[in-house]
């Protein structure tokens, strides 16, 4: 009841102000004797009155549009905060930091997606990039992330997780094509990188058109793999049996830097691309090396390189192995249990 009563004056004000301005101009023109005169002074006054009325109407419309745009951005930002929820700073012994920067100026909405979840099969992570950015990409982000968050717990194999994502994307595109017949979806696609990090640090990966992450070991910065990825989801069918690629181990103290192609596609005023590897080499020179330090260093370098005018969404996800080797005192043959995940309530989706 109170909400309804609070909204009525705003609606009345939105309709009443333009009406009042228009009534003032008409009343002046029809009823004011000065408006009927043909002298120079009368014309100046009449012009000033109509100029004031026109200015008031323009300012009122502009204020209404700005208010509506602000509300749309707040709703979109709240929706993405639910989809791209803040990650805990620690997940099953891994130190985590992540952030996303939208290409839409003044907006927090982008087409990049990431998630890290501790499961009984290991820590599983996804990094993806939806074609396009802004509010239009939110539906695709929701479909892929929603499927990932369920599949990682249900599916024991990483290739079956990928198939679940592919089916979820195809279903979303079919529904979107039915609901929005004028929107072309034939060229819609999503690049996806799936990672699984076991308790021993062994890394398995499935890559569909996404840049390979960088592995930071000491002061060495190298790509995790150099093989050609599979095609992005949505463009071509998956192979009959996509086999996860063994990518070595994430040893204690090592870090993985997952990113979207908007980072390396960022250009400066002279058209030169940003070198993420060089920025990471600079970041590992500082001690102690933490995911948060790497995140701030890279984002600062990107914004300095582009002067804050990047053309595509940018997302970074850093995973650092802070696990320690623990000697197991259980007798041989006893069934071991994985250490439960530790969660810090502070979100890491910030610079």
UniProtKB/TrEMBL annotation:
The chain crosses the membrane at residues 41-61. It comes from the Bacteria. One of its GO terms (molecular function) is protein serine/threonine phosphatase activity. InterPro entries: Bact_Sigma-Reg, PPM-type-like_dom_sf, PPM-type_phosphatase-like_dom. Signal peptide: none annotated. The keyword Hydrolase applies. PANTHER family: STAGE II SPORULATION PROTEIN E (PTHR43156:SF2), STAGE II SPORULATION PROTEIN E-RELATED (PTHR43156). The lineage of its organism: Bacteria, Bacillati, Actinomycetota, Actinomycetes, Kitasatosporales. This is PP2C family protein-serine/threonine phosphatase. Residues 91-321 form the PPM-type phosphatase domain. It is an enzyme of class 3 (hydrolase). SMART domains: PP2C_SIG (SM00331). Its EC number is 3.1.3.16. Pfam families: SpoIIE. Keywords: Hydrolase, Membrane, Transmembrane, Transmembrane helix.
């Amino acid at each position: 009841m109170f909400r309804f009563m609070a909204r009525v004056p705003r609606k009345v004000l939105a309709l009443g102000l333009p009406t009042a301005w228009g009534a003032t101009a008409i009343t002046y023109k029809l009823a004011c004797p000065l408006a009927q005169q043909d002298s120079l002074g009368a014309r100046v006054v009449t012009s000033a009155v109509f100029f004031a009325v026109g200015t008031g109407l323009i300012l009122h419309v502009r204020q209404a549009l700005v208010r509506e745009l602000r509300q749309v951005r707040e709703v979109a930002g709240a929706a993405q905060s639910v989809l791209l929820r803040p990650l805990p700073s620690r997940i099953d012994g891994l130190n985590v930091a992540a952030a996303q920067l939208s290409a839409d100026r003044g907006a927090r909405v982008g087409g990049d997606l990431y998630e890290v979840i501790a499961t009984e099969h290991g820590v599983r992570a996804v990094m993806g990039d939806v074609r396009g950015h802004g509010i239009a990409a939110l539906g695709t982000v929701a479909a892929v992330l929603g499927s990932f968050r369920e599949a990682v717990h249900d599916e024991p194999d990483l290739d079956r997780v990928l198939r679940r994502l592919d089916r979820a994307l195809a279903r979303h595109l079919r529904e979107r094509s039915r609901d929005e017949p004028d929107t072309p979806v034939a060229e819609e696609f999503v690049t996806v990188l799936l990672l699984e990090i076991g308790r021993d640090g062994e890394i398995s990966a499935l890559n569909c058109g996404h840049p390979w992450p960088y592995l930071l070991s000491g002061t060495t910065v190298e790509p995790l793999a150099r093989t050609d990825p599979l095609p992005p989801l949505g463009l071509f069918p998956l192979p009959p049996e996509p086999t996860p690629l063994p990518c070595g181990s994430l040893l204690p103290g090592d870090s993985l830097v997952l990113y979207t192609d908007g980072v390396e596609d960022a250009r400066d005023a002279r058209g030169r691309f940003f070198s993420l590897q060089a920025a990471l080499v600079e970041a590992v020179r500082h001690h102690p090396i933490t995911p948060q330090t790497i995140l701030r260093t890279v984002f600062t370098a990107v914004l300095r390189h582009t002067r804050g005018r990047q053309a595509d969404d940018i997302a970074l996800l850093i995973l650092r192995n802070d696990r320690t080797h623990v000697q197991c005192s259980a007798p041989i043959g006893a069934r071991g249990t994985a250490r439960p995940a530790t969660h810090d309530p502070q979100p890491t989706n910030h610079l």
